[in-house]
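Hey team,

Sharing the NADPH-dependent FMN reductase family protein run so nobody has to redo it. Sequence (195 residues) first:
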Amino acid sequence: MKTVIIFDHPYTARASENIPHHRSFLAALLKRVTSTLIERGVQVDLIDLHADHFNPTMTAQDLSHWRQGIPCNSQVADYQQRIAAADQVIFMFPVWWELMPAMTKGFIDKVYAKNILYTAKNMKTKLNQPKIEVITTMTTPNWLYRIFFGSPLKKALFRGMFLKTRLIHFKWHNIAGLDQKSSRQKERILQSFSI
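Structure output:
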């Protein structure tokens, strides 16, 4: 079994340690998820977008390639091959302004490309129905995100991408209200978190 993890945090995956001004709870979650998967005998392939210096901007040339079903560049082609070979794909990112950061959005725009990973004619994925997991962190309380904001991430990713292209096996793990949680609560979340 092969799992590809797409990790998006400016501090990179190295921010899992408790170093002031360079720590990330999301990176600590990544460390937990990775070790759990490896213990189960799963092959883990990490795409660390910031460490890879991925450019999320869609240029005119990128769009021209995208429309022709050609990878934007060699990095994007590599990402596409890795995802196509995956049994499971995990997206990990913080929620900023109620949606995914630009790096994740650009990754989706450039990598999940028509006539490469899905067919444009019938909007059907070319992937072999991998299990999709989305792991997010946010400071907004869960009830406020769902009721007041209307879960925009769920609409964008699950309805606008996954269901639209018939990726039907997905689950969202959201750690909400993170800034109101104590160190002890965060540690409990880390210790009990599983996918």
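The chain is about 35% helix and 20% strand.

Ping me if you want the raw files.
A.
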